[in-house]
């Protein structure tokens, strides 16, 4: 009888431990991203606003998110080709992305427009008005459908750089008239990047915004990607996205 009791107790203990582990062990999700403060950055608290939102949304539905940081083009490539990654973020919407990825529901937004010299008097109302300006863009970034289409067709004078800082340096030296950039990114870089210290007060955000761009996660196509997208979309409804993002801006 005592042996049976001890055996039953052991089964209950191990069964309880197994149940506890199954409840507490969250499924892992691994996404790539880039250094794009204040939205994403390995050096920021919580790794930036968009990472904080993504982690909170995933946690709400029982997932543990890990983010690995790379240059943008590599981040996208790894998310598409490397089986160790489930996707990448944050990304602007573009219809062509659906050929390789499953897009999540929006996970916040940011105002996309132009940086310009503070003493410049640049006024524009449509894309045709921009044809006379030399405009810096970041290689591999999605901007707006119309802007990117006109760039692809050679109707705009664009110059590509590998990141926003390089474009701002070119703008500060007079080699560009405008540089496409998120307003929050511009404010953060001018305040914190040492290489832009001399540009403080000399660069500003143009009053006309291209678009208030919604941000997305791009999940790798397939059954797992669809499962993760569905779960994330459920999680994003359970958190206050704007409240989380306001902590970083």
Keywords:
alpha/beta; 10-stranded mixed beta sheet; 2 domains; D-Maltodextrin-Binding Protein, domain 2; disordered N terminus; globular; 249 residues
Distance between the termini: 67 Å
CATH architecture title of the largest domain: 3-Layer(aba) Sandwich
Strand content is 15-25%
The Cα radius of gyration reads 23 Å
* Structural domain tally: 2
Poorly predicted parts: 1-14, 17-23
Shape: globular
Question: Structural class of the secondary structure composition?
Answer: alpha/beta
- CATH superfamily annotation of the largest domain: Periplasmic binding protein-like II
Strand elements, count: 10
Tally of contiguous helical segments: 8
Biggest pleated sheet: 10 strands, mixed
SSE run: HEHEHEEEEHEHEHEEHH
Output the CATH class name of the largest domain: Alpha Beta
Binned, the helix content reads: 25-40%
CATH topology heading of the largest domain: D-Maltodextrin-Binding Protein, domain 2
What's the rounded overall pLDDT mean? 91
Please describe the topology of this protein.
Elements: H1 2-24, E1 27-33, H2 49-60, E2 63-69, H3 72-81, E3 87-92, E4 101-103, E5 109-117, E6 134-138, H4 145-152, E7 157-161, H5 164-172, E8 178-182, H6 183-192, E9 203-205, E10 211-220, H7 223-236, H8 241-246
Parallel strand pairs: 1-2, 1-3, 6-7, 6-8
Antiparallel strand pairs: 3-10, 4-10, 5-8, 5-9, 5-10
Helix pairs in contact: 2-7
């Amino acid at each position: 009888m005592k042996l049976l009791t001890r055996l039953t107790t052991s089964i209950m203990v191990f069964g309880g431990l197994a149940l506890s582990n199954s409840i507490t062990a969250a499924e892992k999700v691994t996404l790539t991203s880039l250094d794009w403060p204040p939205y994403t950055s390995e050096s920021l608290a919580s790794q930036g606003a968009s990472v904080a939102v993504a982690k909170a949304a995933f946690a709400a539905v029982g997932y543990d998110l890990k983010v690995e940081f790379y240059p943008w083009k590599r981040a996208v490539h790894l998310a598409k080709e490397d089986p160790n990654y489930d996707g990448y973020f944050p990304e602007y919407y573009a219809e062509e992305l659906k050929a390789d990825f499953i897009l999540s529901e929006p996970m916040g937004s940011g105002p996309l427009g132009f940086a310009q010299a503070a003493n410049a008097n640049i006024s524009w109302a449509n894309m045709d008005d921009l044809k006379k300006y030399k405009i810096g863009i970041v290689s591999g970034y999605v901007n707006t459908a119309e802007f990117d289409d006109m760039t692809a067709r050679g109707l705009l004078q664009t110059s590509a750089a590998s990141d926003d800082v390089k474009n701002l340096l070119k703008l500060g030296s007079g080699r560009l008239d405008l540089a496409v950039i998120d307003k929050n990114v511009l404010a953060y870089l001018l305040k914190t990047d040492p290489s832009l210290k001399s540009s403080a007060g000399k660069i500003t955000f143009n009053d006309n915004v291209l678009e208030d761009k919604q941000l997305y996660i791009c999940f790798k196509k397939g059954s797992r990607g669809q499962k993760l997208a569905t779960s994330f979309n459920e999680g994003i409804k359970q958190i206050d996205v704007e409240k989380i993002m306001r902590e970083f801006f």
